Amino acid sequence: GSGPFTLFPPTDAAFNLLPAGTVTALLNDIPALTDILKHHVVADSVMSSMLANNQSVTTLLGTDVTVTISGGNVYIDNAMVTLADLVADNGVVHVIDAVLLPPTNTIYDIVSNSPDHTTLKAAIDACSLDGVLSGPGPFTLFAPTDAAFNLLPAGTVTALLNDIPQLTDILKHHVVGSSVMSTMLTNNQVVTTLNGTDITVTINSMGDVFIDNAQVVVADIVADNGVVHVIDAVLLPSTTSINEGVYSIKQEFLYTLNLLGEKVINSTKNQIVFDIYSDGSVVKRFVK
């Protein structure tokens, strides 16, 4: 086209520095590849003499790259300009030694960058679900806070981190395979999770939104691949199993806790409870 443009083209060697399989994956994901390429183009002809240290330049993607000049070298974000000022009819080319990747804001990024979701991030990482939640989606994540995990009976989180299949099921029970904004939720709506289990939406007269037993405390945190709603309790898949133990149960029964960590009678109806035993064992039950 007529331009003018500035292109920062990565060399073949730069593409080879990407993790194995990345180029092939991008060639099969044209929208993502298009965004990355646009992140290398500026809608103006910018000669190297026009670049300044700490300068921020907006690309065709609408994202910014930062110029750093150090030791006589010019860097565009993490990439060094190895050949500058190749003048074209419609602009200029500066060759770089690394691929520029636009900043992301995936669901996993949101969790990772949140100071209130360190336990959730650790659980996601342990179950290798970081790739899924960084993927194209779209997804909706109901994200329990650290405080929510702390409401579980003592030892539960540690036990789950040692039982990856069960922890994976619990995490998938917090994810829906579509992007569901809070305005799309209705009272008594039933939503199926990635675990294949259902959660129920309740909206009270005050407009408060609950997902099963958990209240949505921050809604509609929009990600590149969906949306995050922060909740104040951990969602546990309902089960009719009477003995779904985190550990084998061989010791004396001590007491029963509800999801809020409060002691209740062990025959309490229509809720998930935890039976605590003298050896630290925990049994989760759904009492009908």
Question: Quick summary of this structure?
Answer:
The protein is 21% helix and 32% strand. It is an alpha+beta fold.
Structure write-up:
- With 288 residues, the chain is α+β, with helices and mostly antiparallel strands.
- The protein has three domains: 92 residues, FAS1 domain, CATH 2.30.180; 125 residues, FAS1 domain (Roll); 44 residues, no CATH class.
- The strands form three sheets. The chain has a seven-stranded mixed beta sheet with strand order 2-1-7-6-5-4-3, with no helix packed on it.
- Strand 4 and strand 5 form a beta hairpin.
Short key terms for the protein model shown above:
288 residues; alpha+beta; FAS1 domain; 7-stranded mixed β-sheet; 9 helices; elongated
CATH superfamily of the largest domain: FAS1 domain
What is the residue-mean pLDDT, rounded to a whole number? 87
First-last Cα distance: 68 Å
Return residue spans where pLDDT drops below 50 for at least 5 consecutive residues: 240-250
Query: Main sheet, how many strands, which sense, barrel?
Result: 7 strands, mixed
Overall body shape: elongated
Total number of distinct structural domains? 3
Please state the CA-atom Rg, rounded to the nearest Å. Answer: 25 Å
Helix content: 10-25%
Main sheet strand line-up: 2-1-7-6-5-4-3
What structural category characterises the helix and strand content? alpha+beta
| CATH level 3 topology of the largest domain | FAS1 domain
- Examine the secondary-structure arrangement and name the CATH architecture of the largest domain: Roll
How many individual β-strands?
A: 19
Order of helices and strands: EHHHEEEEEEHHHEHHHEEEEEEEEEEE
SS strand fraction: 25-35%
Main CATH class of the largest domain: Mainly Beta
Q: Specify the number of helices.
A: 9
